[in-house]
């Protein structure tokens, strides 16, 4: 019984930092013997992922799948694992060595991120910094701003950290750093702000309005925009259920556009058309009268 307790403790200590998945060599270095590993596998407390890699049954499914394929969870998949809000992407993003890439037969829905490395990955999940560097090569401008907004908002990194990390990134990335807003509360809010500003529409974020409260965005003096952060329906097929939501009078002289996740992700053209029609009439510019 004493040996079993020691092996469990050592195994937990090694697996927890590496996201529930670790190498056999790390188990040995932690003092777990091969016999103890075999016992843990026999009792279902460890699972063989692939040669030289083991996982606890509760390990994250995406991490396990990445390692089973011979890679490391990376890019937007790793960012999402760390809790970063990422643009919708059903693919599993992994990093692999050149050796494994040459031999791998990958199923559909798996994307190998073009982050140059020469040796096999030694971790199950890339660090936040490495994942972001990989995402620079995978995401478009909007996607990068969304990701960096989320990283700053959750204080996973500071702005100075981002600047230093991306110092050697392409010029477009340096430019995008100036568009990042740590006040953004969700990815959909970041998307809407980014898109409207690219259209030349002035957008203020996280504004307090007397009689209304704090709002996600304010266009001009009168148009409030709120963006839901979560997907509530099943995508494009149910988007029609939300099309009735347009620009409505919020109260007094303030108008509001309450946008669902589906509207931002799947139906932006119609949303953009409504907002631009409102702006072109200059209905957003008339100043609000102060409340008595």
At a glance:
The chain is of the alpha+beta class.
Molecular structure report:
The chain has 292 residues and is α+β, with helices and mostly antiparallel strands. It is built from 13 helices and eleven strands. The protein has helices at residues 2-15, 24-29, 34-42, 61-68, 75-81, 98-103, 128-138, 141-153, 159-165, 171-177, 187-198, 261-266, 268-280, and strands at residues 21-23, 47-50, 53-55, 72-73, 92-95, 110-112, 203-209, 213-219, 223-227, 247-251, 254-259. Strands 7-8-9-11-10 form a five-stranded mixed sheet. A three-stranded antiparallel sheet has the order 1-3-2. It has a three-stranded mixed sheet with strand order 4-5-6. Helix 6 links the parallel strand 5 (92-95) and strand 6 (110-112). The longest helix is centred in the N-terminal third of the chain and has 14 residues, at 2-15. The protein starts with a helix and ends in a 12-residue tail after the last helix.
Question: How would you describe this structure in keywords?
Answer:
single chain; 292 residues; alpha+beta; three-stranded antiparallel beta sheet; 41% helix; disordered N terminus
């Amino acid at each position: 019984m004493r040996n079993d307790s020691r092996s469990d403790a050592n195994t937990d200590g090694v697996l927890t930092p590496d996201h529930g998945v670790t190498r056999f060599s790390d188990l040995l270095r932690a003092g777990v013997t091969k016999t103890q590993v075999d016992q843990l596998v026999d009792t279902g407390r460890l699972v063989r992922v692939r040669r030289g890699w083991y996982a606890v049954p509760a390990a994250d499914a995406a991490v396990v799948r990445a390692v089973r394929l011979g890679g490391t969870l990376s890019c937007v998949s790793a960012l999402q694992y760390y809790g970063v809000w990422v643009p919708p992407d059903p693919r599993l993003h992994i990093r692999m060595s050149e050796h494994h890439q040459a031999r791998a037969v990958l199923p559909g829905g798996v994307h190998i991120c073009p982050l140059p490395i020469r040796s096999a990955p030694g971790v199950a999940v890339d660090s936040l910094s490495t994942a972001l560097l990989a995402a620079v090569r995978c995401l478009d401008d909007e996607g990068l701003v969304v990701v960096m907004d989320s990283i700053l908002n959750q204080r996973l990194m500071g702005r100075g950290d981002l600047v230093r990390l991306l110092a050697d990134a392409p010029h477009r990335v340096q430019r995008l750093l100036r568009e990042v807003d740590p006040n953004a509360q969700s990815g959909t809010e970041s998307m809407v702000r980014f898109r409207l500003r690219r259209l030349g529409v002035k957008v203020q974020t996280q504004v307090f309005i007397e009689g209304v409260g704090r709002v996600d965005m304010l266009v001009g003096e009168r148009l409030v925009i709120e963006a839901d952060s979560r997907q509530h329906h099943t995508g494009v097929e149910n988007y029609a259920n939300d099309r009735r939501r347009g620009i409505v009078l919020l109260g007094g002289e303030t108008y509001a556009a309450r946008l669902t996740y589906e509207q931002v992700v799947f139906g932006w053209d119609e949303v953009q058309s409504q907002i631009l029609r409102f702006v072109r009439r200059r209905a957003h510019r008339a100043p609000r009268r102060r409340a008595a």
